[in-house]
Design goal:
Blueprint lengths: L9 H7 L9 H11 L7 H14 L4 H18 L2 H17 L3 H18 L2 H17 L3 H18 L2 H17 L3 H18 L2 H17 L3 H18 L2 H20 L14 H21 L3 H18 L2 H62 L1 H39 L2 H10 L5 E14 L1 H7 L2 H21 L3 E6 L2 E6 L8 H23 L5 E15 L7 E4 L1 H11 L5 E5 H7 L5 E9 L3 E8 L1
Parallel strand pairs: 4-6
Antiparallel strand pairs: 1-3, 1-4, 2-3, 4-5, 6-8, 7-8
């Protein structure tokens, strides 16, 4: 289910300086602000007005929000008004966040926080810390989430800011939800809801209700979940909040899908119809509405999540053609978001390289001018000039050697960057042909790992200790999988994804995957014995099957895999146990002669039904 991440209170702060707008919301607020804009003078008041427009537009049209945010930034810079500049950076960050362009959002939020720290704006710093935590939550960088939330809460409590504290409480609830601690999540969500209701902050009430419904869904209290979601959607619709409405529609559809999957254990009531087919029909109806609304506001994260659920709903209903079409939408949109984030990171490196090369060209140009002056001296100075010319030739020779070394270094840097993103074979194909075709691999083995009790580890350790330990473990994982020619795909928060058998086919892909998995398990066990609670337990899931692998884009690349085998491996990990390697029936058939395995029986896997599973002993 999609969560509601609360933005910081910048919009409310801006509107407090514009009294005639403070009680308006949604389209009514947009219309009022737009009517006032032509009459505004080119002063700080207009900056506030543009920032307010940018913030409220993020909910209905983030493209317009970015346009107004850039106008606010340009005017604030002309006026040299630092508070306005920080506000514009925050406004731009919110809009890029709502477009799922997270690297750009992080960049703007960091700039805003730096200025607020310089001018001593503690409330602005705390608000931006919340925004940073929200973006890191989307990226599943949980140590950063907790770090910024705790720091923001301290500042809000020091300032006595109830609204900021309530918003942050809701975000902490989301953090605990992401760690599967649903009772703790409900505790914080209800605290935030109580303050929001006392203050009559409608948007916050709706968001908290949606998150409470989400927690109830995962506790399989479906009627409570639907009740909260329907209350939430009525508020969002009254506010004209298209983003919140789209999420609620998808959440309701997902709940009806869960009811259909768990039909034998659910009692019908006023919100839950009787029968599997009736609940599936409602699931498909609400999920399609959510995806349509998300397309209108370019909310790619919604499209990714709810397209996958829609595919599951169609599959459960027996409409396999529609299920495949929805899964293709999910895969393509997911790849485009991942590619966009990588592209933005690479763009930063490319800009730095371009500046370095420009500096080198300026140095060469200056030396060229020096050469011309020396040649004029040669015409006058005779033998002395001849010596100067010889010196210049030698200097130019050394300069050329230095330039060649610089070019070689830059080329190596580019090659190293390419190899850090793509497998060696794919990178070579790309350099030789200019393109690299996506490939279908029929026989590979996918490995998923996830750390256990990550939330509790965060409570025992400082954020820096948590990050350092995560880096140490993942670095060792990289070494282990490298021994068995396994390709690392990516890390997702505290999860690790790798695949054996590509880009070069390997008949022993399953055996190599299990060898690597057992070494990873042994390493974590030994580390636990050495440093105790300063590290984590681990679950490992493995499945063998087929995937599609390739790169997206022409100039900026991201290598990834997709297919049902990836989802099944994730289900194996979710149904594993601490210190255990859980494998599917398919993988077991490939390794049973080489490894001792214990049959666990048929176990219910999310969206997969009952599956045979084995522990590798």
């Amino acid at each position: 289910m999609k969560k509601y991440y609360y933005s910081a209170c910048l919009l409310l702060c801006v509107l407090c300086t514009l009294p005639s707008y403070a009680q308006k919301e949604g389209q009514q607020l947009i219309d009022s602000l737009v009517r006032e804009l032509p009459n505004s003078k080119e002063d700080t008041g207009k900056v506030k007005l543009l920032n307010a427009l940018s913030n409220v537009y993020r909910l209905v049209n983030p493209y317009e929000g970015i346009r107004y945010g850039q106008e606010a930034l340009d005017l604030a810079e002309q006026l040299e008004w630092k508070q306005g500049i920080a506000g514009a950076y925050s406004s731009l960050g919110y809009n890029y966040q709502y477009r799922s362009e997270y690297p750009a959002a992080l960049d703007y939020f960091m700039k805003a926080m730096k200025i607020d720290e310089e001018i001593g704006n503690k409330r602005g710093v705390a608000n931006t810390m919340q925004s940073l935590a929200n973006v890191y939550q989307y990226q599943k960088n949980y140590p950063k989430v907790l770090e910024y939330q705790l720091n923001a809460q301290k500042i809000f409590e020091q300032l006595g800011d109830k609204h900021g504290a309530a918003t942050n409480l809701g975000n902490i609830g989301i953090y605990y939800f992401s760690q599967h601690d649903y009772d703790k999540a409900l505790e914080y969500d209800y605290k935030a809801l109580k303050i929001a209701e006392d203050e009559n902050y409608q948007n916050s009430i709706a968001g908290n209700l949606g998150n409470i419904g989400d927690a109830y869904l995962h506790k399989k209290e479906y009627s409570k979940s639907l009740e909260c979601s329907f209350r939430s959607i009525r508020i969002f619709e009254s506010l004209g909040d298209k983003y919140g409405t789209a999420i609620d529609l998808g959440n309701i559809g997902e709940t009806y899908l869960a009811i259909a999957q768990d039909n034998n254990n659910v009692q019908p009531d006023s919100l839950i119809p009787a029968g599997k087919s009736a609940n599936l029909k409602k699931a498909i109806e609400y999920l399609e509405l959510s995806i349509a609304e998300s397309r209108k506001i370019s909310q790619l994260d919604n499209i990714i999540e709810f397209s996958e659920y829609l595919s599951d709903a169609y599959k459960l209903s027996g409409n396999y053609k529609a299920a495949l079409e929805s899964y293709v939408v999910y895969a393509k949109t997911n790849d485009s978001v991942y590619s966009l984030q990588n592209s933005q990171q690479i763009k930063l490196l490319e800009n730095k390289q371009a500046l370095d090369l420009k500096d080198r060209d300026l140095q060469i140009a200056k030396l060229g001018l020096s050469k011309e002056r020396n040649e004029r001296v040669f015409l006058i100075g005779g033998i002395v000039a001849l010596l100067v010319v010889i010196a210049i030739v030698l200097r130019n020779y050394n300069l050329q050697k230095r330039s060649n070394r610089l070019l070689t270094t830059e080329m190596k840097r580019s090659d190293d960057l390419l190899l850090n993103i793509l497998p060696h074979e794919v990178a070579n194909e790309l350099k030789e042909k200019g393109t690299a075709a996506a490939r279908y691999f029929d026989n590979v083995t996918v490995i998923f790992t996830d750390f256990v009790n990550f939330t509790k580890a965060g409570e025992r350790m400082s954020p820096q200790e948590l990050i350092d330990e995560l880096h140490t473990c993942f670095k060792e994982f990289d070494e282990i999988i490298g021994k068995y020619h396994i390709e690392k795909i990516k890390t997702i928060g505290d999860a690790y994804l790798a695949v054996s058998g590509l880009p070069v086919s390997d008949p022993a892909h399953a055996q190599n995957a299990l060898k690597a998995a057992t070494e990873i398990r042994s390493y974590m066990k030994k580390r636990k014995e050495q440093i105790g609670d300063k590290t984590f337990g681990i679950r490992i899931g493995i499945h063998s099957g087929s995937v599609v692998a390739g790169i997206v884009g022409v100039k900026k690349f991201a290598y990834d895999i997709w297919g049902d085998a990836v989802n099944t491996a994730a289900r194996m990990e979710q149904n594993s146990e601490p210190g255990k390697i859980n494998i599917s029936q398919t993988t077991y058939e490939l390794v049973k002669d080489n490894f001792t395995c214990t049959y666990r029986g048929e176990i219910q896997a999310k969206n997969k039904g009952e599956m045979s599973m084995y522990f590798v002993e």
